[in-house]
Write a structure and sequence with these properties.
The complex is a heterodimer of chains A (254) and B (282).
Chain A (H helix, E strand, L loop, with lengths): L5 H13 L6 E4 L2 H12 L13 E3 L15 E4 L2 H10 L2 E6 L2 E2 L5 E2 L2 E2 L7 E2 L6 H7 L1 E6 L19 H7 L8 E7 L2 E4 L8 E5 L5 H6 L19 H11 L5 H4 L3
Parallel strand pairs in A: 1-4, 4-9, 9-10
Antiparallel strand pairs in A: 2-3, 5-6, 7-8, 10-11, 11-12
Chain B lengths: L6 H7 L5 E4 L9 H8 L6 E5 L3 H8 L3 E6 L11 H8 L4 E4 L2 H12 L4 E4 L7 H4 L4 E4 L7 E6 L3 E11 L5 E2 L8 H6 L1 E11 L5 H4 L14 E4 L17 H9 L4 H12 L4 H9 L2
Classes of the chains: A alpha/beta (254), B alpha/beta (282).
C-alpha cells in the first residue's frame, strides 16, 4: 500500500505525538486525536491509558466508526472527578483543539471578540487553564489558516510559553506544550525563545503554503523535513480496525 | 423522615436572585423536570452554577438568568449550546468563566466550609483577567509558591437528578459517572433531588453495588419522583439522550419565531405531566 491520504498522515503525526509517552493517561479530544491516540496505543505506545470517551478505562483498541462493536475490556474507572485529580497529579497528556493559537502556543477555545460580549461564544475555558499548567498538552488544528494561527489570540484559555516564562520557572515547572499538528504540518516550540517552529510539513505542502496560511512568523528551516508516510501496518490499523468507516477523511481538507 | 415533595413546592421555595447549583454534566443526567418547573414560575435574576448543558440554555432563553458560573456550556453531541451562545453574544449575562477543575475546587471549598482552596489552574491565563475578583495566595511554606485562591462556590440551592432514591433522601446513580452531584448538595443550603424511580430503601442494592449510593439523606431536603425527568439529557441505564428532541431544541435558537414555536409546544404547559405527554405525542 503506497497510497495514503492527508488525513492518514495527520493521524500518524498525532500518534507520533504520543509515541514516547510510556504509561500515562491520554485525553485525545476530537475525532482525529481519538484516531491518532488509538493508533499510538496499537503500535508505538501500548502502555497508554485511555477511556472509551466516557468513564471506563479501556484496555483494547476500539474503532471510531464501522459496524464492529467489540466488547470493552475495562481496566479501570475514571469519572470526571478522577480526571481532575489525575490531571493535577500530572500523569496526563491531553490533545485539545484550538480555535486560535499564537506563536508561543497560547490557545483560545473560549470565545472570539470581547469576552463581555463575544462576537462568537465558543466552548468556554473548559479544562485548558488547568491542563496547560499541570501536564503535557498538544493541539490539533484541522483548518490551518491565518484565522487559526494568529498573531494574538482573543482570549487565552491554554497558556503558552511567553506567559509561562512570565510566571517564572517554579510556578510554570509543569508547563509543557509539546506539539501542534495541523492539516499542513507538525510544529513544536523547541527554539531558545520558545516560538513555534516547523518540525515537518505534510507530503505535498509547500513552504509558501504554510507561510501564507500562518498569521505570524514561523521558525522555518530552508528545507523543512517532510512528515513521514504511514507504514503499511499503520494503514491497516486505520483502515481495517480503528476507522473502517473513513470518518477521518471528513475532518481533514487535503 | 419522609422527604417526598413536589416540583411546585420546591420551586415555591426559590426566590429571585438566588444562587442555584445544578448537578449533572453537559447534556447528561440533568434535573430537567425542576428546570422546567422554574420555567413555569416568575423567578428571575438567578445565578446558575453548572457544568452547563441545556439546563443553562433553557434558563437563559427564558430570561431567568443574571449570571452563570461555568467552565463550559455544551450539549455534548452538539458542542456549542446555541441558546447560551445567543445570550452571551447579546452581552446579556454576567459570567464567572473558569477552568473545570477550579469549578470543582470551588464546590469543594464550599462543601468543606472553607473560604477558598488553592490551585495552580488559572495562573497565566485570561481566567485571571476576565474574573478580576479572583485573588492569588502565597504558600506560607519555604516554597512560597503563588497559587490561585479559588473562592468557595456557596449555593443557596442545589438541584440534582438520580436514577433511584428513597423517600428519606438517599440517592443512587446507576450510570458510569457520579459527576459532582454530592458536592453540589454539600455546597448548598437547601438540596432537592429528583429521581427516575422512588424505591424502598431495602431495594437499592438489587440494582447497583454499594458504591452507587452517592447521595445520603444528610445531603437532601426534598425528593421527587420524576420519570423521564432528565429528558432530553441522557440518564443511563434508564435511557439515552433524546438526540432528535435535542436537535429540535437547538434549532429553535435560530430566531425568535422558532423559539416561540418550541416554547409554545413544549414549555408553555402547566405541568411536567403535560410536557411528557407532548414529548410522547411527537
Amino acid at each position: 500500500m503506497s497510497e495514503f491520504t492527508r488525513a492518514e498522515v495527520c493521524a500518524v503525526a498525532i500518534a507520533d505525538t504520543f509515541a514516547g509517552d510510556g504509561e500515562v493517561f491520554v485525553s485525545p479530544i476530537g475525532l482525529l486525536p481519538q484516531i491518532g491516540a488509538r493508533l499510538a496505543k496499537a503500535t508505538s505506545a501500548p502502555d497508554l491509558l485511555m477511556t472509551d470517551g466516557v468513564a471506563p478505562l479501556v484496555a483494547n483498541v476500539l474503532p471510531v466508526s464501522g459496524d464492529e462493536r467489540p466488547e470493552l475490556v475495562v481496566e479501570g474507572w475514571l469519572p470526571y472527578r478522577k480526571v481532575f485529580e489525575l490531571l493535577w497529579w500530572g500523569r496526563r497528556h491531553v490533545m485539545m483543539g484550538a480555535t486560535q493559537i499564537d506563536r508561543f502556543g497560547n490557545q483560545n477555545i473560549a470565545c472570539i471578540g470581547d469576552h463581555a460580549k463575544p462576537r462568537a461564544m465558543l466552548l468556554g475555558m473548559r479544562g485548558a487553564p488547568g491542563n496547560t499548567i499541570s501536564h503535557a498538552t498538544s493541539y490539533w488544528v484541522p483548518n490551518h489558516s491565518t484565522k487559526t494561527f494568529v498573531a494574538q489570540v482573543d482570549v487565552v484559555s491554554g497558556m503558552g510559553y511567553d506567559r509561562a516564562a512570565a510566571l517564572g520557572p517554579r510556578a510554570a515547572r509543569f508547563h509543557d506544550v509539546r506539539r501542534v499538528v495541523s492539516n499542513l504540518g507538525v510544529f513544536d516550540f523547541g527554539t531558545p525563545e520558545r516560538r513555534m517552529r516547523v518540525v515537518s510539513l505534510h507530503p505535498g505542502v509547500s513552504r509558501d503554503e504554510v507561510v501564507a496560511s500562518t498569521g505570524f512568523e514561523l521558525v522555518l528551516p530552508e528545507k523543512p523535513p517532510t512528515t513521514r508516510a504511514p507504514s503499511a501496518e499503520e494503514l491497516r490499523w486505520l483502515r481495517e480496525v480503528i476507522d473502517p468507516g473513513g470518518l477521518r477523511e471528513s475532518e481533514v481538507r487535503a | 423522615m419522609d422527604k417526598r415533595t413536589t416540583l411546585a413546592e420546591v420551586v415555591a421555595e426559590l426566590r429571585d436572585g438566588m444562587t442555584i447549583g445544578i448537578g449533572g454534566w453537559g447534556s447528561r443526567r440533568k434535573p430537567m423536570a425542576l428546570i422546567r418547573e422554574i420555567l413555569r414560575s416568575p423567578l428571575r435574576d438567578l445565578t446558575i452554577v453548572s457544568y452547563g448543558g441545556p439546563d443553562v440554555g433553557l434558563l437563559c432563553a427564558a430570561g431567568k438568568v443574571r449570571k452563570v458560573v461555568y467552565g463550559f456550556v455544551s450539549l455534548d453531541s452538539i458542542p456549542l449550546e446555541p441558546h447560551f451562545r445567543a445570550a452571551r453574544q447579546r452581552g446579556a449575562l454576567e459570567t464567572m468563566e473558569i477552568d473545570e477543575g477550579m469549578f470543582q475546587w470551588g464546590l469543594q471549598a464550599a462543601a468543606y466550609r472553607l473560604p477558598f482552596l488553592p490551585t495552580r489552574a488559572g495562573l497565566g491565563t485570561d481566567v485571571m483577567r476576565i474574573n478580576p475578583e479572583l485573588r492569588t495566595v502565597r504558600s506560607p511554606y519555604d516554597d512560597e509558591e503563588e497559587l490561585v485562591a479559588m473562592p468557595a462556590l456557596t449555593l443557596d440551592v442545589a438541584l440534582v437528578h438520580m436514577n433511584r432514591a428513597d423517600a428519606s433522601g438517599n440517592g443512587q446513580y446507576l450510570g458510569p459517572d457520579p459527576y459532582f452531584d454530592d458536592l453540589f448538595c454539600m455546597a448548598a443550603q437547601r438540596r432537592f433531588m429528583t429521581c427516575e424511580k422512588l424505591v424502598r430503601t431495602e431495594d437499592f442494592l438489587k440494582e447497583g453495588s454499594l458504591h452507587t449510593l452517592l447521595i445520603n439523606r444528610l445531603m437532601v431536603d426534598g425528593v421527587i419522583e420524576t420519570p423521564n425527568g432528565a429528558h432530553f439529557t441522557e440518564c443511563p441505564p434508564d435511557y439515552g439522550r433524546d438526540e432528535a428532541f435535542q436537535r429540535e431544541y437547538a434549532e429553535a435558537a435560530r430566531d425568535a419565531a422558532s423559539w416561540e414555536k418550541f416554547a409554545r409546544r413544549y414549555l408553555a404547559l402547566d405541568s411536567e405531566r403535560a410536557y411528557q405527554e407532548a414529548v410522547r405525542a411527537r
